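User: quick one, fold this
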Amino acid sequence: MPLVTFDYKDFIQVLGYDIPKETLIERLPMIGGDFSHVDGDEINIEFFPNRPDLTSVEGIARASRAFFGLKTGLQTYQLHPSDVILQVDASVKPVRPYVTTALVKNVRMTDELITSLMGLQEKLHVGLGRNRKKVAIGVHNAEPVTPPFTYKAVDPDAVSFVPLAKDESMTLREILRHHEKGVDYAYLLESCSKYPLIVDAHDNVLSFPPIINGTLTEVTPHTKDIFIDVTGTDRKAINYALNIVTTALAERGGTLYQTTVLDEGKKIVSPDFTPLKQKLSVATVNRILGTQLKEKEVETYLKMMGHNATNAKGGTLTVEVPSWRPDILHEVDLIEDVAVGYGFDRFETDFPKALTFGRTLPHHGFHEQVRSVMIGLGYNEVTTFVISNEKDEAIRLGLPKKNLVEIENPIGEEYSTLRASLLSSLLKLLRENRHHPLPQQIFEVGVIVDSQAKNRYRLAGMKIDAKAHFTECKALVETLMRECGEKLVIKEATHAAFIDGRCAAVVHNGVDIGVFGELHPKTIQEFSLEYPMIAFELAIDYLS
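Assistant:
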């Protein structure tokens, strides 16, 4: 869980009210955190990662204002218009397609704010931003640069600038090779022939996202006006990140100005604090929580969590969710907030009304046997997400799009379908670990979802190594089946993800239950990998 460190006196100043430290320490964890330790006025608290809005003292102060009943309901912030424009060039779309911006004026850069802002930025990069892959935030001194700004992709050797923490000018390629941040995050751009860049009206470089900003716009204790850019691969995620950062600065007294992004003929004004509206049934609240709350009580507890709740019709409330709360995805998330506002310490404990005896599922024994065999063969077990996306499943892996089950209301493009194969999940995991030594060999026993939206169990294994070849994969599958007491027939097959002539199907009782072989170089490159790979996937529902 992200650890937030802040000074009690600074917290009280941001809060605008007085809360005794003892009361704060006793009650604040009920929002969803756990105190790590308290040393005098220095408070260290961990919050659950589903609440990125609480990863700064400013966000904690806002939530505390409502939770402690000092100022309940949806917090509002005044937004002013500005003439700042950022133009998105079509060249950047294949690289890092989305960007949003904001301008904050009259900022007083105290030591506490600088520390908090840097911590918030890095915590958002790690959590919401998935180590900058999904979201990267740039915070700039707005005074040395001149709008309109341009977000574009350029040749790695065509542009040079002085990055933060350096004194000499470097090209984008040199930054990835020699700058500390460039080395750490170079993998994010490995598959790109051009790199993203944000420049001003005079071609001065503000940012090389998601890697590093330029020294020209470095924020100092004397900075008063801040320009913020957030780039990424998910539009919802970058908007949440921008709203969290800008409202944190507003809590410190900054004046917020909206900017305009011109993207493919669309005019996008940001930040946008329009709340998301959701319906909440009071009856459902009581059924899930085991309470007998009235509509007004539910409304009160929602306001204690920073929401607005109005217009109760037929026992259903209309809830306005803050634009900095990415964790509210479903009605049940609002019910959880009602429970937090009500107080977990108020729920009565009770003994179970009935005793039950559990037993393993029918397939459990065979799955454990398979796991033991794979571990004995030197493979490491992994567990990955069932949720995937069309690009990984259909475009990169080559599965038929018609076989994919789409999610009706996805949180983002990265999680928009249910996987139809374990292979894509294993490829993504190896991509994230490609900087580690070879060989790497992993397997998973997991669920895929077929075209009829039914869960099916699969076993998949994968190895990446300079000497990986078809014969090794064939021997692996034969050994696995023999150790599990299963008979199989192998026949030649074709698969979009494998090399023709080095791919085979596994037949059991006359039914094709899987495929194995050498992955095609195109498949390997699509997942930003470089070395030969072998893989197999079996439908173990057909086995013992």
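User: anything notable?
Assistant: The two ends are 41 Å apart (CA to CA).
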